[in-house]
Amino acid sequence: MAIEGKSEQNAGRIRLGMVGGGRDAFIGGVHRIASRIDDRFELVAGAFSSTPEKSKASGADLGLDQSRVYDDFTAMAKREARLKDGIDAVAIVTPNHMHYPVAREFLKRGIHVICDKPLTATLGEAKKMVAAAEKSDAVFVLTHNYTGYPMVRQAREMVAAGELGTLRVVQAEYPQDWLTEPLEQTGMKQAAWRTDPAQSGAGGCIGDIGTHAFNLASFVSGLELDELCAELTSFVDRRRVDDNANVMLRFKGGARGMLWSSQVAPGNENALKLRVYGEKGGLEWSQEDPNYLWFTPLGEPKRLITRGGAGSGEAAARATRVPPGHPEGYLEGFATIYSEAAEAIHAAQAGESVSSDVVYPTVQDGLIGVAFVDACVRSSGRNGAWVSLNL
Amino acid sequence: MAIEGKSEQNAGRIRLGMVGGGRDAFIGGVHRIASRIDDRFELVAGAFSSTPEKSKASGADLGLDQSRVYDDFTAMAKREARLKDGIDAVAIVTPNHMHYPVAREFLKRGIHVICDKPLTATLGEAKKMVAAAEKSDAVFVLTHNYTGYPMVRQAREMVAAGELGTLRVVQAEYPQDWLTEPLEQTGMKQAAWRTDPAQSGAGGCIGDIGTHAFNLASFVSGLELDELCAELTSFVDRRRVDDNANVMLRFKGGARGMLWSSQVAPGNENALKLRVYGEKGGLEWSQEDPNYLWFTPLGEPKRLITRGGAGSGEAAARATRVPPGHPEGYLEGFATIYSEAAEAIHAAQAGESVSSDVVYPTVQDGLIGVAFVDACVRSSGRNGAWVSLNL
Amino acid sequence: MAIEGKSEQNAGRIRLGMVGGGRDAFIGGVHRIASRIDDRFELVAGAFSSTPEKSKASGADLGLDQSRVYDDFTAMAKREARLKDGIDAVAIVTPNHMHYPVAREFLKRGIHVICDKPLTATLGEAKKMVAAAEKSDAVFVLTHNYTGYPMVRQAREMVAAGELGTLRVVQAEYPQDWLTEPLEQTGMKQAAWRTDPAQSGAGGCIGDIGTHAFNLASFVSGLELDELCAELTSFVDRRRVDDNANVMLRFKGGARGMLWSSQVAPGNENALKLRVYGEKGGLEWSQEDPNYLWFTPLGEPKRLITRGGAGSGEAAARATRVPPGHPEGYLEGFATIYSEAAEAIHAAQAGESVSSDVVYPTVQDGLIGVAFVDACVRSSGRNGAWVSLNL
Amino acid sequence: MAIEGKSEQNAGRIRLGMVGGGRDAFIGGVHRIASRIDDRFELVAGAFSSTPEKSKASGADLGLDQSRVYDDFTAMAKREARLKDGIDAVAIVTPNHMHYPVAREFLKRGIHVICDKPLTATLGEAKKMVAAAEKSDAVFVLTHNYTGYPMVRQAREMVAAGELGTLRVVQAEYPQDWLTEPLEQTGMKQAAWRTDPAQSGAGGCIGDIGTHAFNLASFVSGLELDELCAELTSFVDRRRVDDNANVMLRFKGGARGMLWSSQVAPGNENALKLRVYGEKGGLEWSQEDPNYLWFTPLGEPKRLITRGGAGSGEAAARATRVPPGHPEGYLEGFATIYSEAAEAIHAAQAGESVSSDVVYPTVQDGLIGVAFVDACVRSSGRNGAWVSLNL
């Protein structure tokens, strides 16, 4: 991804299709920009909406050949699989409950899948998704995009290198404030489907953003969850899912943690934050200021490691495009996941294995995420009993 | 406390004695400075140590008349009570297990007590302390000093005025790092007594600093705890008390919270932080940057309220000495508790009731704090069961 | 640029060529990513280096048709102008002294120019560039990219709306540290040409980054310079240009300012910062944390306006792709300049005038920038005499 | 000053008098608190106002013996000099133009002087003050209090130890906003005398706070000024002194600097800031967050050194009372100057020389400060000509 000529070497753009992401969606546009940043993909087809006119209009907006714009993802999968220059990969950016039905159609035809998170709306579907992915030769990439930030890669690398020693404490949080009021009752589409259990799954806030926090904590710490206890709350009147989640975590090996996610915390826009403490040092990272990583080796002054600056290592460099002091953001982190997807797809096409430096979230990570939400819901339903993931 | 002439009006300095706080103590010196800042007290007597030479030497350091330096707090209480110019008040700055035995001797002689926190080492003693204080005519002030910070007063005032609406979420944390290694095994006195259940009580980190965080959350939010579930952990080998505490909180009326305290989190010196969120807004305050209070009215930009600056109100002004931009710190916050103690003592001496603006922590707050620690220990012992305070 | 379908409406991608930006360049890659983010351009041709093999290799890296890869920019201009699907626009990303010779060839053939800053290496050339641009029908866009940041647009909009009242004080600074040591003597290419007066012009640091700071100050404040006095210093032994510049500014209408740029200030990566104060309020913005704008209305608490958050207006919204809390960075700001270039080019192609919302830096802004550098060099040569721009 | 018993060893409190600092003053109260914090002084006398009733009332507020409250500083000096337990030292906290007349009376009687800054209102008086101080056996301490902050001491120690290498660049600034409007025209006393040349001297903002910034820069960097050029501006209608000052600095040895002070910069309360850059590293310190010092060794990550934390050395420790993470503030920094005054006075009383660790600002520093203001006024009057200090 780096700007150096080497990594701009273009092995040919991957032909990308998209399911979901029509005119009034948010995440579809994000995926499209992310796919373009490193120039590894070209969007050539899409089923942007199940409403035919809306899908057509969206395709037209994007300058697509109208023959490649569908209103039925199954039809899209079938036809694209047969086309000589059909899509190599599909990006799935629908509400959660459609992830599995859509992915299945493409996976079974060997089309690579880049799927938004969480993996599915239910744990049952998540397990089916794993099975479908394992059965397919296609690559499956889950866009837990926050793992794409360079300083998250840096943190992971430092933990893995033992710079913190044995980990003891993990504190993850992801507060937002956009659902402080009953926005879903105003007809706002983003709020409506995210608070509808049929579309989002049983977890509300915990599924929408709590999973990101848990995924991030796991990605950086390398720790595996043993048990959790959770209390999910719906503060807003008539809201059907949780909008605040308090979770305590026990990791295998003895580390302990807490996770807080909320969508009713005024003053928080998208304040995902991770802190990890070990016997020898501590790390702190905030998504809203992503180019910084605080590192304190025990007994030394706190250090501000900047993306690409002194102290920033190989893992961050691989996910970096511009020099230190030139901030990269959310879209670049997302683009890193896409670039890693491209590397995996090219490797698959060449029958080779992909570099171990490529660490995008997998279908297995997705299953763990859905199991995490499921466990939180179960624990909360049992008054905060300690439960394990049902994998 | 303000610098304006009015509040420097000196109704005569209160004669203060001290128990504990000898040469190698930390908090004794803090109390002495705090007592001087607003010029309401004069230290005239002390039992600084049970080792006679040490007490004498400490008294000499402080320029006290040697006849007023004791090695036995009971002797001190007895003699000072009889002296014509004996102490009006005593500051108790011993390890926790001595708070009650010491306070009792002074309370029963009508000498006002300013006691360090936590109130006692055990819940049983805490209840006895309440009884002793209620039985006495003396004023009892507990130095949960963080409540003395002007912006904490500001936060409390804003919550009480309804600027946040009904509260939903409270997040309190108090991480430190100084016990990351087994300092108590090196003979370091501060570490030794704080990790000795016989001196500190059953709670380690949760008693030493978790109580501060809980007290602060209660002071600002005005919420009353319903239940908690806790997990206390001792990460350091052979440590006898917890050094990390994860707690989930249920408040009466439905608000939910989390509290984390740790003494093994590298990169945290004394990072007490409180966040409170309601239906209409959110507040954030950090002890290490105490002159700032972040306030977000829902749907408006975040505001940085500064001590004494625009948006800072009456409650903060009463606890403020210098203009905005001239930072006040830990000692000034502590001094505010002392000044409020002085106001209460003068009122008591005059047979008047003290102003409702005076809001120092009371013996009752101390009981709640000890009950909080007790509840955390009980819950943790029962694998994180929800428990109520045993008041 | 917004993610909403509307602005993704694609009027057909503009065919883009590039001069400069071969394998070991930095800014060429930045321009390429910026041109892709909003999907308005497609890179189809280039003269990436005057070394034929290097240009070919760079073109191959980028997947270009080899027939469109040139080693001579004049040949490129001639041939592309004749091709039926020849380039619509060219991005010029060479060292400064080549900007004018290159631009001239394209401008005179009606090919739109997107040129890196500063406009030229000398004031004489800058005036010729203005003449060439005025004579041409082509659009000329100068990539003073920092004007593309949403919160810079927000600041400009607020000043223009009178939210600060009459301006009094402008403080601009742009410190870096990468030239603290004589990097140019190690053969590092970026350092070599930037410290070579023949390639960069007479200004070193003041030309490379001081112009950015001055352009930003002008863009936001709307103020016009009356006079300046400057002291340029070369701290590093044998460096041929300034690496630190102190400048005092007098604006027409009475406002006063200072500008500091440095490349020898350890601890500063790319710390462009602007502060503007008026009778009614103040604004502060830092490039390294670009999603925030501090605004203090006189007598009110400081407000943190976030990109897309409460208080963020129309001008910022037009330059924004993702919701508040999802940070955008350097590349997105750069992309906004490209998208505005696209709007201007499409308007030109349609014979229409472009919207007044489109405010990219022009050739005239570029002339002012070069005149600013020239004035700083002149003033410094006269021991800091006050001088005017030689426009 | 440290809390350790050793430094609380009390060699007997110094008897302190005060001139100025009556009921509606600001800085008098600050001096009184500062004198108490480390318990080295006892206020026993004062001429708080030339209005007899006001002086009496102020003395009564402070609990002084009325026989020691004067309305005439000369009478005070005479009588206190004769008293057996007369004052050892006097704190002078009047408007600037009275510093010299008052100090003279005490100096000539051998009474130690602690004088607020700037030294005097005019350069002529400053020179007389130096002569008077040199002629006297008394200690003379100038309360450029910002030099008392622990992290300022730390910065000075690091520069002196060569951790930054040869210094190149110094950036000092001190913006405030309280005079953005013509407060002096409302009768507000603080504003009135500070904008009256007869009381404050020819410099307004540059004398009131610019001198602090210059003193701080000199104290930390150890550099000596060679020349300066300045532009002083009065933005507020009918204001008689400058309210904004832009200054460029040339130091002996080749370092260059800028200094900005303003009292019309909305959003700045008391934002004194210093940045120092050398060949090997950089330092940054802000008065409003005084417990932090940013240090970047060239080529390493930025480090956050905290007061008393890792990386904080001996000089800071000597000026520190409480552990890291327990913020000290403005009053503690001020108290350090008082404690150093006490050390110097005790040494003088004992006929000994004071430790080289005692580095309070001297009468000579005060002369340099007044000469700095004088030079700024002269340079500005000559359209920013370079001028030297007239020492």
Short description:
Four copies of one chain form a homotetramer. Chain A is α/β, with parallel strands linked by helices. Chain A folds into two domains: 5-145, 3-Layer(aba) Sandwich (Rossmann fold), CATH 3.40.50; 147-320 and 365-381, Dihydrodipicolinate Reductase, domain 2 (2-Layer Sandwich).
Characterization of this structure:
The structure is a homotetramer of 391-residue chains. The longest helix of chain A is centred in the C-terminal third of the chain and has 20 residues, at 330-349. Helix content of chain A is 36%, strand content 20%. Chain A folds into two domains: 5-145, 3-Layer(aba) Sandwich (Rossmann fold), CATH 3.40.50.720; 147-320 and 365-381, 2-Layer Sandwich (Dihydrodipicolinate Reductase, domain 2). Chain A is α/β, with parallel strands linked by helices and 391 residues long. In chain A, helix 7 crosses helix 10 (205-221) and helix 10 crosses helix 13 (363-381). Chain A has helices at residues 5-8, 27-37, 52-61, 73-82, 99-107, 123-135, 150-160, 189-194, 197-200, 205-221, 314-318, 330-349, 363-381, and strands at residues 14-19, 41-47, 89-92, 112-115, 140-142, 167-175, 225-233, 244-251, 256-262, 273-278, 281-286, 292-297, 302-306. Chain A has an eight-stranded mixed beta sheet with strand order 7-8-9-6-10-11-12-13. The first copy, chain A, has a five-stranded parallel beta sheet with strand order 2-1-3-4-5, sandwiched between helices. Chains in contact: A-B, A-C, A-D, B-C, B-D, C-D. Chains A and C meet through helix 1, helix 2, helix 3 and helix 12 of A and helix 1, helix 2, helix 3 and helix 12 of C. Strand 13 (302-306) of chain A pairs antiparallel with strand 13 of chain D.
